[in-house]
Amino acid sequence: MSVLQQELPPLLKEEVLPLLTSDQITDQHMDVLRWLVWLSLLTREELGRVLKRDTQTLWNHLDFLTKCGLIDYVILNETGWPRRHHRYYITDLGLHVLAARHAPALSARKIAMSYPVTQADLLERLARPRVHLLLCELVTRLITECPAGYHLSSYQQPYKQAYRDVTGKNHTMTFDAAFLLQTPGGAQHAFYIHIDQPEHMFSQKEAKVFIKKLFALRQWMRLQGEVMPHLLLLSGVERFSFWSEHLERITLNQGISLLSGSITDTGQMRKGAYAPIWIPFQKLPEHDGRVKESDLLDLLSLLDRPISSRIAEQFSQYFTFQHLLLRKEANALSPNRRTLKRYVESSLQEASTALTALLTPRVLSPEERKQRPAHAEMSREILDILYGAKEERLAMSTQLTLALSNQQKDILAHLTRHPYLSQPDLLTLLHPESQNERLLARQMTPLIHMGFVRVYSWDNAPSWRVHERYYASESVLRFFAVRHGLSPAYYLHPIFPKDEKRHPVSPLSRKVVWLQHGAGLLKQQMPHTAGVYTCVRAILAASYQGAPYRINYWKSAQESVRWHQDPFHTEEDEPVSFIRPDAELLYTVNDVFIPRPLLIEYDRATTYSREHTRKMRCYADYQHLSRTMLPPMLMIVRNERAAQSVRAAIVSEKAFDVRVIMILEEQVVREGLLPVLDQLRCLSLPTEGDTVALSSPIRESG
Q1: CB atoms near residue 414 (< 10 Å)
Q2: Whether residue 357 has pLDDT greater than 90
Q3: In terms of Cα–Cα distance, which of 1, 3, 10 is closest to 346?
Q4: For residue range 190-222, what is the model confidence (pLDDT) as tens digits?
Q5: From-to residues of CATH 1.10.10.10 in the chain
Q6: What gap in Å lies between CA 182 and CA 553, rounded to an integer?
Q7: E strand spans, 91-187
Q8: Which CATH number fits domain 11-118: 3.90.1150.10, 2.40.10.120, 1.10.10.10, 3.40.1050.10?
Q9: SS3 325
């Protein structure tokens, strides 16, 4: 058996029988068990919210149930959430006790089939913790903050919606969750929920596919005479413009109306699920970067289109057990049975003990450093499991989620987005208030020792501090693919042998070598990569040291790619316009609510004038063909000669509508964005996504 797996002994009927007649288990304890069946992996605060009990009383109940073995917990560490907080779930013993003590008695098998209590259900939630944490916050608020007369009648996580496209082909679209809200008049209103995770890389292609599926689903439901449920998109404020751009572009290209949906910043959830925090897609900010109070709606304002009973029947998970009483089953505690079936099967926290011991942040002792072969064997086993079946990948991702600290996950997320960061880069991203290298070393050392973080020695580095560059291993990239609910091909691409032609290959194939997208080019151009990272680090550091701006997000070169395809071309055609900045920053100035984008281009004074000309032509062509205005471009140059070459390229290509701000590299390293802040304020309007009404091509305007 793998050292990363653990199984519990069979559950004996003798363990259950004493608890069925125990006077110590009260109705209040049974209420806790019911809610952990309906909504698994809740915190004490969330349980207190739905049970309407004070924290101390609930703590005593949870402690008693844990000691009895009726419930168990996992300890999660995620950035933005309380450190080492406990999330509770019902055990096999608790499930059988609840089924037997319920009046009338229920079938434990039926409960396990109808609600998220099995090991597979728990692993699916813990493998994507950011999604589950937000959904728990949302659904518990939907239940407890519900206005008088309204009722949350059903909640399902995740939710799969089947539909057919115009050719009659069957499809299934998966949402993170869905729920039904019943009005005082009895009408049912349905909502889909999609979580846009903050550490998830921006992807124009992925967003386009998701939105097109939504439009296809809406078209199918209209043909069926049904109303499509309202989409609730939970995202970060720095991603609003990204979603606004793609929603508007697809609707304009296809000549159709916008989707019925709303977006909110996940940080606004603490105000309440029914508070005015929802921004309709039609009102997404496009001009001044501010959200007007009049544009914000509460959830009840979105109840404008009740669904039919046929659609309502597809929502099968209710906060009651009445539907489980329609057909009786044989009693699981009959005298002929000695053992009971397990559904949870193992203790999730104990299963991650071995990994937790290896990954605990610390400085390794000399004895631990000698154990490198054993750690290498564990790393190979982890990678093998991440190549396995879906259940194995979910189990491994869950164990890594429980074993890694929140800062270790942040380090791996940064390296997934920006390969070959240096130690000063990581310190600025993780500990902007301190340059104490020991803080980073404690988190990094176990990751390097386990082989999760690889070290590349840059021989031509300008200083010893940036000599070591760090990048994520294949195991980490596959872990993040599971964590974000994506295929491993999202982060990895295959390298075929020289004598083998390229061909479609499964992302789980071991016959090819897998490398991270874009990492090879960054390594080949290490002086350029290090220069970009140094400039961005200086911009970030200045914002932390009191500069009147804030960097909300740093997009990598891969995330910054923009391409435009003629809507009359087929999907297989190449994009007709393509630009690739070195980076993109989303920044806010003073009280502006929505972060504004800023493209970054870095020139090491090794670029020929023809390359500057080609670059400006690409930018101008993109604006002309897509008929959108790109964000301002910050061109970082090393000397005045390079600046003159860029100016000549702008004149040569008549790219006067491309908003370019030039600055010397030494100014950026010394002052960040301060020297160009006034220019950025002047160029903040219009922004990307605004339609440019032109009577002549951009390249001929001036």
Answers
A1: 20
A2: no
A3: 10
A4: 999 999 987 788 777 888 888 889 998 999 988
A5: 11-118, 352-357+370-524
A6: 39
A7: 151-156, 159-164, 170-175, 177-182
A8: 1.10.10.10
A9: helix
Please, which pLDDT band fits residue 285 given cuts at 50, 70 and 90?
low
- Grouping H, G, I as helix, E, B as strand and the rest as coil, residue 687 is coil
- Measured CA distances, 604 to 612, 666, 667 (Å): 12, 12, 14
Whether domain 352-357+370-524 has CATH 3.30.470.20? no
Beta strands in 146-302 (DSSP E): 151-156, 159-164, 170-175, 177-182, 188-195, 230-235, 261-265, 279-280
Q: How many CB atoms lie within 10 A of CB 97?
A: 27
At residue 41, the pLDDT reads 94
177: how many CB neighbours lie within 10 A of its CB?
A: 22
The torsion of the CA quartet 538, 542, 548, 553, rounded to 10 degrees, works out to 50
Structure tokens at 670: 């010394």
pLDDT for residue 657 is more than 50: yes
Phi, psi of 150 (to 5 degrees): -95, 155
User: Position of tokens 């605060």?
Assistant: 45
Q: Which residues are CB-neighbours of 469 under 8 A, at least 6 positions away? A: 420, 421, 422, 455, 456, 457, 458, 526, 530
Residue range 428-450, pLDDT digits in tens? 998 887 778 888 888 999 999 88
Q: Which tens digit of pLDDT belongs to each residue from 458-514? A: 998 888 889 999 999 999 999 999 999 889 999 999 988 887 888 888 999 888 899
Predicted TM-score of the model (pTM): 0.89
Greater model confidence, 521 or 168? 521
**SS3 assignment, position 105:** coil
